[in-house]
Amino acid sequence: SGYLRKRMRYYSYDPSVDKIRSLNDKLEETKSVMVDNIDRILERGERIELLVERASDLQDNSFKFTSSSKKLKWAMWRRKVYIWIAIVVVIILAIWLITSLFCGFDYHKCS
């Protein structure tokens, strides 16, 4: 019975036994921190994948925008050219009409 009491005191109060318990506690704490870190890394990986996907979408949209803006630029340039051609034709017709009124339509008065 004395031996049993010594053993009970030893395991209940001995600092070396507490070291093992504290070591186990530290290991559990470290394990918990590592699990949290792994979870954060996985979350960050998901966010990075989302960013990569968004960047790819943005790049696709920028190519589409560039293409459509070039088409619009050419369409506006053609429209501007057509307007200038129309203005020149109207001016030529106006000059012809004015000169025809003064010189006659077969230009026999101005010869």
Break the fold down into its secondary structure elements and pairings.
Elements: H1 2-13, H2 15-103
Count the DSSP helices.
2
Strand residues, percent:
under 5%
Biggest sheet descriptor = none
Instruction: Give the overall pLDDT as a whole number.
Output: 87
Instruction: Provide the succession of SSEs.
Output: HH
Shape: rod-shaped
Q: What percent of the residues sit in helical stretches (DSSP H or I)?
A: over 70%
Alpha carbon gyration radius: 46 Å
Class derived from helix and strand content = mainly alpha
Low-confidence stretches: none
| C-alpha termini separation | 150 Å
Number of strands: 0
Structure report:
This protein has 111 residues and is mainly α. The chain has two helices and no strands. It has helices spanning 2-13, 15-103. The mean pLDDT is 87.
Brief sketch in words of this structure:
This protein is mostly helical and about 110 residues long. It is about 90% helix and about 0% strand. The longest helix is centred in the middle third of the chain and has 89 residues, at about 15-105.
Relevant terms:
rod-shaped; 111 residues; mainly alpha
